[in-house]
Amino acid sequence: MRQHGWSLVELMVVCVVLAIVATVSGPAMGNLITRINLTSTTTDFISAVHLTRSTAVRQGKVVVLCPTADGESCEPEGDYADGWLVTNDHGDPGETLRHWPATEATLAVNFPGDSYVRFSPDGLPRQAGGAFLAGTARFCLNGKEKRVIISRNGRVRTEDDEC
Question: pTM for this one?
Answer without folding.
Answer: 0.81
